C-alpha cells in the first residue's frame, strides 16, 4: 500500500527561515498541468490551472500517496491518478466526502517567473 | 509474548483502551457510532481475521455476479483507520481472552491489553456433516476468500456448480455462478425456495424465474455425500441421484461465532448472551452482531446490527439508559432483475387475514398478512416498491383499518394520499428506513440534503451511503431529493448526463460535436453550456476522444485531458514508477529484440520483467525520468510502443497456425501480424484486443476478444464483442469470409463503427449488447457499401495516429517537460 515516500518530517525544518526560491517560469508548465520540484521536503507539485493560477502542494495524495502532479487538472482542483480523489489546490484538502489534506507551500508569480516559499535547513540555503 | 502496553496521555487524561475483535460490519459500525459520540475517548485497536479492511459483506453477491469490484464495496479504507488513530491488525485472529489480566492474544502471539473489549465475531457458515465435505472444491459463501475461490473456479473452466441450500445466500451464489458461465444446480431440503422468507406462491414464482435463467432447482432433496477423490466431482443425493460438480457451495445456514467467548468462560448459548445494553456476562466485555444472542434471538441480517451498534456505542460512552429491544427484519434478494421482498410473519394462523393481489401478465404477486388491524407480514414478488411502506407500518404497529381496502395497491392509493408516489414518500416518517443495505433512514437523508446542500443522487450516495450498495432504493432517494429541492432537482431523464458538468448524455454530445462542427474542448463546452469552467476528470478524456474520432485530421490532441498513462505513454504503478511494454507483432519476437530488452533491463536496473497475458513482455518499475532513454534503446532495436496503456489497440494474439502446427489450416500468425500492422495506434472508446487462431481448437482464445478470427479450411470465421475481465462475454459470430483482404476490411469497418458510435469507456461487449448484434451485422455485413466506407474512414484516421509516441519523445523532444523535474532545490 505504500505510495511514494520521500519526505523528511516537516518538524525538523520549521525553525528555518522562509526563503523565496525561483523554480522556473509559468510557461514551463502546460496550462491545466503540473511539474515537480524536488526538495528536502520531498517532491512538491507546482500546478498551473487553465486560468494560469499557480499553486504548490506536496506531491503526495492524502489517500495512499499517489503523485498528484500526474493527475488531471480541472478548475483549481486535481484528480489523483491512482484512485480519483479530488484535491483542492488552494487548501490541499480532499474535496467531497473524502477527508485528508496534503501540505501546501506559498508561491509568488512575478513577470512570469515562479518563486516558491520554503523553509530549508540552514546549511542548504 | 510481546506485550503492547498502550496508554496514551491525552490532555491530562489517560485514555481507556477499547479492543475490538472482528473487523466486520457490526464491529466497525459500532466504532463509527462511537467516534461520532466521542472521538477521543478510547484508544482503539481492531483485530480482523480476514486480510481485508472493513467491507460490506452483503455486497459479496454483486461482486460474485461481476456487478461490483471489491474496491467498490469497501466501507472504510486504511486511511480511515489511520485518520481516526485506530490500530488495525488484519489477518490476525484472536485466539484467547484472559479476563484476569484483561488481555487478548492473537494467533501470531500478539497480546494487547484492554479496558473494554468488544466481540463482533460474526458467524461461521454451517457445513453439513456428510462424507466428502473436506474435499477441495467445496466452499462456503461468507467472505471475500470464498468469492475469490468461486470466481477462480469459474475462470479456470469449472463447468458444473452445485449449491446446497436455497436460502438468500444460496440463491445469490447460484445466480452469481450462472452469470460467470457455470451450469448451476441448487439442492434444497424443503419444498419451497427461501421458505423462511417466502410463502409457496412467491417461492414458486422465484423458482420459475431462476429456471428460465438456466439454474436448476431440486427441492425436497437431501444430500448424502460429496463425491470425488482428490477434488470434488459430484454430489450424491439420498434418493440415489448423482449430480456432477466441479464446485460445491454449502449455503445451508450460519452459526454464531462463539468459540472465543466460550473458551473465555462467558455465558454462551446459541450465541454470546448479552443484555439490553449489549453487555455479556463479564461487564468489561460487550458483543454485537451475528455472534450475539439477545432475549433468546439471534440474527442473520444487517438491520439489527445498526440498532445494536447504536446502543453499544451509547453504553461505551456512558449513556447507560439506551436499550436494545430486538429487531423486526425484512429481506430483499439481491439478484439483478428479480424483485423479492419479505417482512414479518406470514405463516398465517387462525386470527390472521390475507390480502392477496396477483397480476400474471406482469408476474406480480403481493400478499399482506393482517392481524388485529395491524400488518403482521408482507411478501412481495415482482413489484417491491411498497416494501418500505408496509415494513414501516409493520414495525410501528400502525392501525391500518382505514386503509384496508386499498392497502394492497400500495402507497399510491393508501392513506388518502393520491396516486402520487411523491406524496407517499412525503408521508413517510423520519425514522422510515430507506436504504436497507446501509441502514439509512429518511430523516438522515433529508437532513443531509438540507445541511450539506446536496443536489444529486451521487451526492446523497457519497454523504449518507444511501442507495450506494444494491441500489434498489434509488427511486425513493430521488423522490426525497425532489421533495427537498423542488424544481431545483431534475430527476434522471431518459439518458444519464455524461457527468456532473453537463446535462447532455454521451450520445447527444457525440452527435452535437459532428452536427455543430465543434472542434475543440472549449468549443464543445461553450456550445453545449457546460456547467463547470473546464470540465472534470471524467468528461475531459471523453470529449478529447470524441473530438479525435470526429476530426482525425484536424483535431489537436489535448494531452492535459488524458489520463496520465496516455499522456506519458506508460502505465503508472502504485509506487509512481511506470511499466513499459514494447509491441511484439502478432506475438512474434526475435533474438535481437530479446537482447535489446535484456540490455535495457540491465542498464536501467529494471526490477521486474514479466511475460504478459497478451503475449509480450512487460518491464516494471521504470522511473519516469528514465522513460525516454529506455524507449530510445528499444527504438534502436526496432521496437515501438505496445500501447499497453491506451484506450486503443492493445494486442493481437495469435497461435502458431499452419506454418508449424499439425492442425493449422491457415497462417494465423501472419494474419495476426497484418491485422496488428493495420490497427496499431488507433484510439478507441476503450481498449481493443484482437486474436487469430489457426483452427477451431482456438489456442489464441479468439472468441473472447473484441474482434476474433478463427481459421477454418474454407476461410476465416469472424467474431465480435468478446471480453475477458470481470464479466466474461463470449463473442458473437459475425460472419465467415474467404480471403485475408476481407478479414482486414471487416475488421477495420467493425472497429470504425465502434469508434464512431460507442460511448467513451464502453468496451465492445457492452456496446454490442446495447445496440444489438443485428444492428452491427446490418452495418458491417449486409451493407457492402457502408462497410467499405467505414473501412476507408478507419484507414484515413490511421494516417494520423500511426506515429510511434515513444520515438517522438525519445528522439524528437516531444513533451520534454513531462520527464524532467521543474527544479531541484535544497
Ligand atoms: C500486464 C497485464 C497482466 C500480465 O502481467 O499479464 C495486464 C495488466 C493490467 N491490466 Fe489487464 N493486463 C493484461 C492482460 C489482460 C487480459 C488478457 C488478454 O488481453 O488476453 C485481460 C482479459 C481480456 C480482456 O480485456 O477482455 C485483461 C483484463 C483487464 C481488465 C478488464 C477489462 C474488462 O473489460 O473487463 C482491466 C480493467 C480495465 O481495463 O478497466 C485490466 C487492467 C489492467 C491494468 C491496466 C490495471 C491498471 O489500470 O493499472 C494493468 C496494467 C499493468 C501495467 O501497469 O502494465 N485488464 N488484462 C496484461 C497485459 C497484456 C499486454 O500485453 O498488454
Ligand atoms: C453473501 C452474503 C450476502 C448477504 N446479504 C445480506 C442482505 O442482503 N441483507 C442483509 O441484511 N444481510 C445480508 N447478509 C448478512 C450480513 O452480511 C451479516 O448479517 C453481517 O455481515 C453480520 O455482521 P457481523 O459484524 O456480525 O459479522 P461479520 O460481518 O461476518 O464480521 C465478523 C468478522 O469477525 C472476524 N472474526 C471472527 N472471529 C475472529 C477472531 N477470533 N479474531 C479476529 N477476527 C475474527 C471475521 O473474520 C469477520 O471478518 C449477507 C451475508 C453474506 C455472506
Ligand atoms: S489453434 Fe490450431 S493451428 Fe493454432 S496451435 Fe492450436 S491446433 Fe495449432
Ligand atoms: S492515492 Fe488514492 S486517490 Fe490518491
TrEMBL record, chain A:
Pfam family name, one: Rieske
Matches recorded under InterPro entries: Rieske-like_NirD, Rieske_2Fe-2S, Rieske_2Fe-2S_sf
GO biological process: methylation; nitrate assimilation
Keyword list, A-Z: 2Fe-2S, Iron, Iron-sulfur, Metal-binding, Methyltransferase, Nitrate assimilation, Oxidoreductase, Transferase
A Gene Ontology molecular function term of the record: 2 iron, 2 sulfur cluster binding
Domain Rieske: 21-116
PROSITE patterns: RIESKE
Name the UniProt record assigns to this protein: tRNA-(Guanine-N1)-methyltransferase
Record gene name: nirD_1
UniProtKB/TrEMBL annotation, chain B:
FAD/NAD(P)-binding domain segment(s): 17-295
Annotated residues for binding of [4Fe-4S] cluster: 655, 661, 695, 699
Gene Ontology MF terms: 2 iron, 2 sulfur cluster binding; 4 iron, 4 sulfur cluster binding; flavin adenine dinucleotide binding; heme binding; metal ion binding; NADP binding; nitrite reductase activity
Cofactor: FAD; [4Fe-4S] cluster; [2Fe-2S] cluster; siroheme
Nitrite/sulphite reductase 4Fe-4S domain location: 646-780
All copies of domain NADH-rubredoxin oxidoreductase C-terminal, residue ranges: 330-395
This protein's pathway: Nitrogen metabolism; nitrate reduction (assimilation)
Residue numbers binding siroheme: 699
Domain Nitrite/Sulfite reductase ferredoxin-like positions: 573-637
Gene3D superfamilies hit by this protein: 3.30.390.30, BFD-like [2Fe-2S]-binding domain, FAD/NAD(P)-binding domain, Sulfite Reductase Hemoprotein, domain 1, Sulfite Reductase Hemoprotein,Domain 2
Keywords: 2Fe-2S, 4Fe-4S, FAD, Flavoprotein, Heme, Iron, Iron-sulfur, Metal-binding, Nitrate assimilation, Oxidoreductase
Keyword ATP-binding among UniProt keywords: no
Residues covered by the BFD-like [2Fe-2S]-binding domain: 434-482, 498-547
Cofactor note: Binds 1 [4Fe-4S] cluster per subunit. Binds 1 siroheme per subunit.
CDD domains: NirB_Fer2_BFD-like_1, NirB_Fer2_BFD-like_2
Biological processes, Gene Ontology terms: nitrate assimilation
Family affiliation: Belongs to the nitrite and sulfite reductase 4Fe-4S domain family.
Protein name: Nitrite reductase large subunit
Species this protein is from: Skermanella aerolata
Amino acid at each position: 500500500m505504500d505510495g511514494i515516500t520521500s519526505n523528511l518530517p516537516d518538524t525538523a525544518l520549521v525553525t528555518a527561515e522562509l526563503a523565496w526560491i525561483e523554480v522556473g517560469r509559468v510557461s514551463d508548465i502546460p496550462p491545466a498541468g503540473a511539474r515537480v520540484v524536488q526538495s528536502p521536503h520531498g517532491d512538491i507539485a507546482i500546478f498551473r490551472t487553465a486560468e494560469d493560477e499557480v499553486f504548490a502542494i506536496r506531491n503526495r495524495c492524502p489517500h495512499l500517496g499517489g503523485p498528484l502532479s500526474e493527475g488531471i487538472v480541472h478548475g483549481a482542483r486535481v484528480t489523483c491518478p491512482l484512485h480519483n480523489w479530488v484535491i483542492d489546490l488552494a487548501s490541499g484538502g480532499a474535496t467531497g466526502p473524502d477527508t485528508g489534506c496534503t501540505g501546501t507551500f506559498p508561491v509568488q508569480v512575478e513577470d512570469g517567473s515562479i518563486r516558491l516559499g520554503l523553509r530549508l535547513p540552514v546549511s542548504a540555503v | 509474548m510481546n506485550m503492547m502496553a498502550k496508554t496514551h496521555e491525552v490532555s491530562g487524561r489517560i485514555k481507556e483502551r477499547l479492543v475490538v475483535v472482528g473487523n466486520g460490519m457490526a464491529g466497525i459500525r459500532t466504532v463509527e457510532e462511537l467516534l461520532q459520540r466521542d472521538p477521543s475517548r478510547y484508544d482503539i485497536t481492531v483485530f480482523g481475521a480476514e486480510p481485508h479492511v472493513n467491507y460490506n459483506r452483503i455486497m459479496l453477491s454483486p461482486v460474485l455476479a461481476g456487478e461490483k469490484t471489491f474496491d467498490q464495496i469497501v466501507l472504510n479504507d486504511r486511511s480511515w483507520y489511520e485518520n481516526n488513530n485506530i490500530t488495525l491488525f488484519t489477518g490476525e485472529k484472536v485466539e484467547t481472552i484472559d479476563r484476569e489480566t484483561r488481555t487478548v492474544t492473537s494467533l501470531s502471539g500478539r497480546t494487547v491489553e484492554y479496558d473494554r473489549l468488544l466481540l463482533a465475531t460474526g458467524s461461521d457458515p454451517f457445513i453439513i456433516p456428510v462424507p466428502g465435505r473436506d474435499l477441495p472444491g467445496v466452499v462456503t459463501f461468507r467472505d471475500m476468500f470464498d468469492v475469490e475461490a468461486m470466481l477462480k473456479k469459474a475462470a479456470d473452466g469449472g463447468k458444473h456448480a452445485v449449491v446446497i441450500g436455497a436460502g438468500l445466500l444460496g440463491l445469490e451464489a447460484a445466480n452469481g455462478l450462472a452469470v460467470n458461465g457455470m451450469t448451476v444446480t441448487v439442492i434444497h431440503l424443503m419444498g419451497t425456495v427461501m421458505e423462511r422468507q417466502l410463502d409457496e406462491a412467491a417461492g414458486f414464482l422465484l423458482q420459475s424465474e431462476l429456471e428460465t435463467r438456466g439454474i436448476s432447482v431440486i427441492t425436497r432433496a437431501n444430500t448424502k455425500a460429496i463425491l470425488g477423490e482428490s477434488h470434488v466431482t459430484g454430489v450424491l443425493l439420498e434418493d440415489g441421484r448423482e449430480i456432477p460438480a466441479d464446485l460445491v457451495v454449502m449455503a445451508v445456514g450460519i452459526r454464531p461465532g462463539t468459540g472465543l467467548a466460550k473458551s473465555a468462560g462467558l455465558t454462551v448459548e446459541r450465541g454470546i448472551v448479552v443484555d439490553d445494553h449489549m453487555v455479556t456476562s463479564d461487564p468489561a466485555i460487550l458483543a454485537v452482531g451475528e455472534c450475539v444472542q439477545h432475549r433468546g434471538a439471534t440474527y442473520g441480517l444487517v438491520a439489527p446490527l445498526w440498532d445494536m451498534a447504536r446502543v453499544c456505542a451509547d453504553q461505551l460512552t456512558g449513556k447507560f439508559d439506551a436499550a436494545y429491544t430486538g429487531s423486526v427484519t425484512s429481506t430483499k434478494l439481491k439478484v439483478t432483475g428479480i424483485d423479492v421482498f419479505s417482512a414479518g410473519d406470514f405463516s398465517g394462523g387462525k386470527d390472521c387475514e390475507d390480502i392477496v393481489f396477483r397480476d400474471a401478465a406482469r408476474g406480480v404477486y403481493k400478499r399482506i398478512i393482517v392481524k388485529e388491524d395491524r400488518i403482521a407480514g408482507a411478501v412481495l414478488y415482482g413489484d417491491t416498491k411498497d416494501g418500505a411502506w408496509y415494513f414501516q407500518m409493520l414495525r410501528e404497529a400502525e392501525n391500518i383499518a382505514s386503509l384496508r381496502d386499498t392497502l394492497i395497491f400500495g402507497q399510491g392509493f393508501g392513506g388518502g394520499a393520491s396516486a402520487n408516489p411523491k406524496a407517499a414518500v412525503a408521508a413517510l416518517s423520519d425514522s422510515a428506513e430507506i436504504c436497507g443495505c446501509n441502514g439509512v433512514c429518511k430523516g438522515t437523508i433529508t437532513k443531509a440534503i438540507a445541511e450539506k446542500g446536496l443536489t444529486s443522487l451521487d451526492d446523497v450516495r457519497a454523504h449518507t451511503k444511501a442507495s450506494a450498495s444494491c441500489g434498489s432504493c434509488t427511486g425513493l432517494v430521488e423522490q426525497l431529493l425532489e421533495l427537498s429541492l423542488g424544481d431545483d432537482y431534475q430527476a434522471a431523464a431518459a439518458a444519464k448526463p455524461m457527468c456532473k458538468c453537463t446535462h447532455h448524455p454521451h450520445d447527444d454530445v457525440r452527435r452535437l460535436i459532428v452536427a455543430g462542427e465543434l472542434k475543440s474542448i472549449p468549443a464543445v463546452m461553450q456550445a453545449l453550456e457546460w456547467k463547470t469552467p473546464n470540465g472534470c476528470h471524467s468528461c475531459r478524456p471523453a470529449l478529447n476522444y470524441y473530438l479525435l474520432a470526429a476530426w482525425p485530421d484536424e483535431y489537436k490532441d489535448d494531452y492535459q485531458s488524458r489520463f496520465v498513462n496516455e499522456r506519458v505513454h506508460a502505465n503508472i504503478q502504485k509506487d509512481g514508477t511506470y511499466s513499459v511494454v514494447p509491441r511484439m507483432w502478432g506475438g512474434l519476437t526475435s533474438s535481437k529484440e530479446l537482447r535489446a530488452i535484456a540490455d535495457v533491463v540491465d542498464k536501467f536496473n529494471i526490477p521486474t520483467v514479466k511475460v504478459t497475458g497478451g503475449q509480450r513482455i512487460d518491464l516494471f518499475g521504470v522511473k519516469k525520468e528514465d522513460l525516454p532513454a529506455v524507449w530510445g534503446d528499444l527504438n534502436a532495436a526496432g521496437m515501438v510502443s505496445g500501447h499497453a496503456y491506451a484506450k486503443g489497440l492493445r494486442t493481437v494474439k495469435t497461435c502458431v497456425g499452419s506454418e508449424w502446427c499439425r492442425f493449422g489450416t491457415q497462417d494465423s500468425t501472419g494474419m495476426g501480424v497484418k491485422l496488428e500492422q493495420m490497427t496499431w495506434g488507433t484510439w478507441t472508446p476503450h481498449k481493443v484486443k484482437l486474436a487469430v487462431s489457426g483452427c477451431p481448437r482456438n489456442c489464441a482464445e479468439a472468441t473472447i476478444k473484441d474482434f476474433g478470427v478463427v481459421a477454418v479450411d474454407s476461410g476465416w470465421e469472424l467474431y465480435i464483442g468478446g471480453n475477458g475481465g470481470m464479466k466474461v462475454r463470449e463473442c458473437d459470430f459475425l460472419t465467415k469470409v474467404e480471403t485475408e483482404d476481407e478479414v482486414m476490411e471487416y475488421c477495420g469497418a467493425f472497429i470504425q463503427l465502434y469508434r464512431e458510435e460507442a460511448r467513451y469507456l464502453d468496451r465492445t461487449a457492452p456496446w454490442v449488447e446495447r445496440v444489438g448484434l443485428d444492428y452491427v451485422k446490418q452495418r458491417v455485413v449486409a451493407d457492402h457499401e457502408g462497410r467499405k466506407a467505414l473501412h476507408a474512414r478507419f484507414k484515413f484516421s490511421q494516417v494520423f495516429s500511426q506515429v510511434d509516441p515513444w520515438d517522438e519523445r525519445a528522439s524528437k523532444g516531444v513533451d520534454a517537460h513531462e520527464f524532467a523535474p521543474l527544479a531541484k532545490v535544497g
